[in-house]
Write a structure and sequence with these properties.
Blueprint (H helix, E strand, L loop, with lengths): L14 E3 L21 E2 L21 E5 L6 H4 L16 E6 L13 E6 L12 E7 L13 E8 L64 E2 L10 E3 L30 E8 L7 E4 H5 L16 E7 L6 E2 L11 E7 L5 E11 L11 E2 L11 E7 L3 E9 L4 E10 L2 E7 L12 E8 L6 E7 L2
Parallel strand pairs: 1-21
Antiparallel strand pairs: 2-5, 3-4, 3-9, 4-15, 5-14, 6-12, 6-15, 7-10, 7-14, 8-9, 10-13, 11-12, 16-17, 17-20, 18-19, 18-21, 21-22
Length: 456
């Protein structure tokens, strides 16, 4: 199994004060599907397919990605009615894989992918036990067996050193169009001052093999404009001159986390999903699971509903350690990439979430629950959820407002917590029957006080 940290102990509350860390980071445990959160992928290691030169996967396919607007919550959960939000839009990341530039075919050894920097600092993911990812291949069950391709999921630290020229390898330096380091893509009709060059630093007309027009012989161009209409694609390996006339054009750069430094350290785990496999890690197959009772549903299933929910354990049986130094205590990047294709591929990702041992996602907001049982004798449990780690303080008071016992005052990790009160005061004496109160104070929410009853 992947090494894990100590299990969170059971905790008790009454007056609970949670102090969040001062520096806010992206919510750990959730991967954002907004297309602007993804950047072109650095080069993954060889996964055992057709032998590439050296240890890297080589020739890359063209990739376009965007957020479609025609997917609803019902597509992933057909049992939802309109009243339950079934017709609400579901955020989806769509990938459209095309043949490499200058080619009309996709070969199994071609690859392409995207990387999301999860944080500018490494994060500890040892609290999680599963990775859950929704995938739509547009081939309803049992048609998945006809899909040729492998979806790879990399988790950890991935090198930012990439290459797009099949004859070259990662070169050990930070390649970027932003030559003057001002964070902008400077454009000029004078080539001496124009930074819109692709990662090779050459304008198309300067590249060996240039054939005229908007040819990009080195295939190193990355294109993303946040001002585009939603249905338009962001692109990798499109045409040179991608920033021309675009005021919001971003410089092509290998600096995935945009911290200004070149990170060349590869230490990650990799899970591989064979898209033709209809069983491995599949927790839900929408057509397989809902199709037999389609007559009970408010709306029929779509003819292109190939949604599957994969639940992949964070174990070394599922996630192979690509480098011995890989650790879930040091996670900065989430990378998805595909290879093993025999033609163009359209794929949708409908959600990526890390779950705890009970299959629960990271809490999104602080929540305090009513104790149970209530009334109670001799003890009761109070549960609460923390979206961020922080100091937790929990106190119990009697009906006159006098402090009975402080159950907890310590740092707690983000997650789900349960505190048991045994019905004793601070001197370990049994309290009398009657009404008691527990109060929880959480950052960003109104302090919560709830009543509980000790019944003899």
């Amino acid at each position: 199994m992947i090494p894990r940290g100590p299990k969170a102990a059971l905790i008790v509350l009454a007056t609970v004060t949670c102090t969040a860390p001062s520096t806010a980071a992206a919510r750990i445990g959730t991967v954002d599907l907004d297309r602007s959160s993804w950047v072109w992928s650095s080069t993954p290691r060889w996964d055992g397919g057709a032998p590439p030169p050296g240890e890297y996967v080589f020739e890359h396919s063209r990739l376009e990605w965007y957020n479609p607007r025609d997917v609803t919550e019902r597509d992933l959960n057909p049992s939802l009615s309109d009243m339950e939000g079934g017709d609400h839009e579901h955020k989806v990341l769509e990938l459209n894989v095309k043949p490499p530039t200058g080619s009309v075919q996709i070969q199994p050894f071609h690859w392409t992918g995207l990387t999301q920097p999860l944080s500018r600092i490494v994060e500890d993911y040892t609290r999680f036990q599963y990775l859950e990812i929704w995938v739509n291949d547009f081939m309803p069950y049992p048609g998945h067996v006809n899909v040729r391709g492998k979806l790879h999921i990399d988790l950890g630290l991935v090198s930012e050193d990439a290459f797009w020229d099949p004859e070259a390898v990662p070169n050990g330096r930070l390649d970027t169009e932003d030559k003057n380091g001002d964070g902008r893509l400077d454009q000029s009709s004078d080539l001496a001052f124009d930074e819109d060059t692709g990662l090779d630093g050459l304008h198309s007309v300067e590249e060996p093999g240039y054939t005229g027009g908007s040819s990009d012989p080195h295939q190193d161009d990355y294109d993303f404009d946040p001002e585009r209409v939603p249905q338009d694609y962001s692109r990798i390996n499109n045409m040179e001159g991608n920033g021309l006339g675009l005021p919001n054009a971003l410089p092509d750069t290998e600096d995935l986390n945009r911290d200004g430094f070149a990170d060349f350290f590869d230490a990650y785990y990799e899970a591989t999903i064979d898209l033709a496999d209809t069983s491995s890690y599949v927790a839900t197959d929408v057509v397989r699971d809902y199709g037999p009772r389609e007559q009970e549903l408010e709306h029929p299933l779509s003819r292109i509903n190939g949604w599957r929910r994969y639940r992949v354990p964070l174990s070394e049986e599922a996630f192979v350690r690509v480098r011995p130094s890989a650790s879930l205590e040091r996670v900065e990047h989430f990378r998805i990439w595909v290879n093993g294709l025999d033609g163009p591929l359209r794929l949708q990702i409908g959600g990526v979430e890390f779950l705890d041992a009970q299959g629960r996602p990271q809490p999104r907001e602080p929540i305090v629950y009513q104790n149970a049982p209530n009334p109670f004798n001799p003890g009761t449990t109070i549960r609460f959820e923390l979206p961020d780690p922080g100091t937790v303080r929990l106190r119990i008071y009697d009906v006159h407002g006098r402090l009975v016992r402080e159950l907890l005052h310590e740092s707690r990790p983000a997650g789900y917590h349960a505190v048991y009160w045994d019905g004793e005061d601070a001197s370990a004496r049994r309290v009398a029957s009657g009404v008691y109160w527990y109060r929880m104070e959480l950052p960003g929410v109104t302090p919560q006080t709830r009543k509980m009853v000790m019944a003899r």
